[in-house]
Amino acid sequence: MKLISSFYSFILHRNCFRAKKRNLVPTEKYFSQVQSLQENDGGISVQAVGRQRCRILTRRSAINGMPYGEVRVLEEKELPAFSQVLIPASFANMRPKKSLRYFAAMTSHSYHVLKISLTKHYIDEIAKWLYGWHVYGKVKRVLSQGPTALSYWVAANLPIDMEMRLRLLDEPCTDRRLKDEYGIINRIDVIVCKNCGTLLCNMSQMISVSTDGNSAHYVNPS
After folding, report:
1. Helices (H), the chain
2. Which SUPFAM superfamilies does this chain map to (predicted)?
3. Which domains, and CATH codes, for the chain?
4. pTM score
């Protein structure tokens, strides 16, 4: 296979599978933009950049069994900043925390309610959870890529089944996806065996003694 460098191609990441409860073949998937593709010792080396949601329009197979298809890139929506929608122009020079308190005083919503409704709140809470399970540098790098990249990365790394992962992928709005992921994290309260489901411990019994990620988690003996 010749090196592809003069043009961009696309490769689908995930195989089709049936959702157990819906009995449907989901059409939302990730695809990556292939920067180079090269055959090495009977294997294929792929260098891909970027990741986007797409909907499969048509699917077909070549004679050699290689799957092909047409896809449509799905629009990713991010809600505008709170300050651009609700806060008056006279608050523009105020710090976000101070302007939020003023706005809370002008409405029937408390400062706490407004604060926990912001996407930034969900990002901060998700980041706190991630720092306990992943390498600090990796989490910081994902956070620096923006809310959309963060929401995809969290969806890919949460310990959830494929059906729930599909629901997150089906959400077209980054802000709502982050909110859903935060809700899932809050519901994780026990550690079980991945293979047999045996209860190992509660989350409150876990302690981390590593600064480099999830390589040193222990159960606090009672």
Report:
1. 82-85, 96-106, 111-117, 119-131, 136-143, 147-157, 162-170, 174-187
2. PUA domain-like (SSF88697)
3. 9-73 (no CATH), 85-219 (1.20.58.1480)
4. 0.63
